[in-house]
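Hi F.,

I've been meaning to write this up properly since the lab meeting, where we talked about keeping a consistent format for the predictions we share between groups. The idea is simple: the sequence comes first, exactly as it goes in, then the structure tokens exactly as they come out, then a line or two of notes. No screenshots and no reformatting. I'm using this chain as the first example so we have something concrete to point to.
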Amino acid sequence: MATRGIYGGIDLGGTKIQTAIVDEDRKVLGSARRPTPTSGGPADVAAEMAAATREAAQAANVEVDSLAGVGVGSPGTIEGGTVTSARNLPGWEGAFPLGPTLEQALGCPVRLGNDVQVATDAEFQLGAGKPYDSLLGVFWGTGVGGGLVLDGKPWLGRGAAGEIGHIVVELDGAQCTCGRRGCMEAYAGRAAMEAHAAKQVEKGKQTDLFKLMKERGRTRLTSGIWARALEHEDKLAKHMIERALRALGAGVASACNVLDVECVIVGGGLGVRLGEPYAKRIAEAMQPHLFADFRPPDVHVAALGDLGGAVGATLLLADDAVPA
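Output, unedited:
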């Protein structure tokens, strides 16, 4: 039997699966994190999501099938219970029925939403966005995702709003994971930065990035590794981050020129890990590109940190939509 008021949330990212169990006030009762699979396909990712949710439920001392529901923030295009073209995940080019698959595995209702939009909604309702009526969430991680709140309401467009990572910052520029060229994500997304760094090493550039990756037992250049390399004054890491900041400044400012939002919230793995100093640097990089440069938007780091996406996913669930 469902426990009304106790919810699960899953934040599915390109690097990690973060889960949380919360009460009706969104207080976190238990959480768990697992690496996102690097091989296999959507079914393998779904299995890890279910396992991480069970682990969080155990930490919260509740049975997973007694949850009032589980909300999921997922990359890709969301249509009902199906996720399509989540390209930063292994083998996920087509459509996969993630919602029904998780409902069967967990034994409770599941609701899906866009990963960055649910994290933006969480910041708007519970975090750094509470003082504002309009904001742009910029989640700097494996890719660069965006979420929108306009006039106090989430703006989804026709289902693909907020794809700020695919604002073009350089015509005929670097190849993006979406297959197009010159997107902001091609310069600032962690996956694209890692690929570019590897090419630079092949050309003879020196860096400790991949040495740090091996020392920490990682298979990817995580946000923590980038932060550590910057602390070590690694020249290639500093160059790559500067390149990313220039792209973020141009892309985010361009979105603000269209939307004129009051606030930009910087989240995601890199955004949260690098923190307030780099949020300020993004604001500085935006300034030359802002049309209303006399009235720039406030720029803040996501207050809910790594749990923001999972907590935000629980906001997809309403008491009246979930059976008792």
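Notes:
The longest strand covers residues 3-12.
Residues 130-303 form a domain with the Nucleotidyltransferase; domain 5 fold (CATH 3.30.420.40).

If this format works for you, I'll send the rest the same way.

G.
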